[in-house]
Amino acid sequence: MRYTDRTAAGLVLADALRQRGYGSESIVVGLARGGVVVAAEVATTLGAPLDALAVRKVGHPWHPEFALGAVAPGGVTYLRDTDGLPPETIAAVVAAAHQRATALDRHLHAAHPSLPVAGLRCVLVDDGLATGATMIAAVRWARHTGAAHVVAAVPVGAYESIQLVSRETDEVVCPLVPHPFDAVGRWYASFDQVEDEQVVALLAADGSS
Question: In the chain, how long is the greatest CA-to-CA distance?
Fold first, then answer.
């Protein structure tokens, strides 16, 4: 099974969430950038408001493709591995990630202020779950901001990462758990990069932000 694109994946994910009782009382928050495209379909199907969360990976200083962890707005930091790096090096890459997250958050919400999640059922959506780092940072952000119930929802994910994320959240919804997993993009026929302006347009089209 492969998804045609993120939009098609969002429809499948929305159906899985609806079967578990999620609906218009929820708030759907897509992890920027790719997760927002999936989240837009989820929000439309459920009749729920849509927002975006600027979560950024903490890259290894010498191997940027390797994620040491992730950060989210409000000073939320999750580190899954420090790779034996000195504390001052870790502090520097974490600070850089927070700067990127803050800049992206300001840009995405310049015209559409972020929606409050306190006391609500928060559905965090990404296009896939590889290491789980960005989703865990998002879950901790939702907890920090007072969400009453937090679910991590992805169209496809690695089994080990789903188990890791499940320790942090109230529920994980993932219709496709392939083995071997390899990479998120493998499970999409089209997996183009999502630009900031596409996220802004999705928030504007929703009308809730």
Answer: 47
